What we know:
The protein is of the alpha/beta class. Helix content is 35%, strand content 15%.
Amino acid sequence: MSVNTAKRLQIVDPHLHLWQLRAGHYHWLRPENAPYWQDKALLQQDYSVEALEPGPHFQLAGLVHIEAGFDNSAPQRELAWLAGQQIACPHRAVAFLDCSQPLKQLQVNLQRLLAFRPAGVRHIFEGDDERWLHTPQLEHIASMLAQHRLILEVQCQLATEKNVAKIAQLAEQFPDLALVINHAGLVQPEHFQAWQQASQILAAFPNIALKLSGFEMLHAGRYSLPDQTWQQRVFAAVLNHWQPSQLMLASNFPLCLFQGSYQHLWQRYYQLLTGLGLDASGWQQLSADTARQWYGLDVLS
Length: 301
């Protein structure tokens, strides 16, 4: 498939990971640690910005580095490392914030992060850690993040009713808090109807955005072919419920490499969305403008 355009289309990738194995801990990438993925070796190498090759039809005009477990006990170290990388395009970072810590320690950690001016923070609310999404402490955390104009990245199962209720509660209680749902809310074919209902509920909140990414995660760290029919079904659903200004395409690089190259990912997104009738303006919004606006990259451009 080729992109039929006379000039390169700008993309702003709001969800990717860069890492240098000898610089940080990255416990999850070590072969002796979970997750025990079949093709985990793909990730056990350094990934710098030079590895981002969008191809001849796309121009990488901005990016957001999402925490990758550099050092969860001192997450400011990841931001310090990132500041030392040579990244030519406008960029921001989302840092790790351990929402399970006592509030006083969490406040100290947040202050350390603020020195590096992150765009937001993330604690992955999956598996056993889903419980931290539902503690009263999270409301105190949300209040602090809203005060500092920091995004709360939310990575959890949207098909779980109590998760949707909690996210909606936070969005309503803290209208100045920006919440960004990671990886399309971890949508799965077997829970599509519940996910679709959740998606429709959350789309009503103007302070919630949805990142369309992570489709390779359905195959748990194995090489696989992209299921374009499935991805188009997800895209069609979100286009029905969400405003374009709430939607952003993202790669989840380098995990997206389980399903092919970085270039092919963006070509596939373009093909699927234009196939659904998305026009040039809509593509520009989903592939660049929404990310610029939510992550403050428009100020840096």
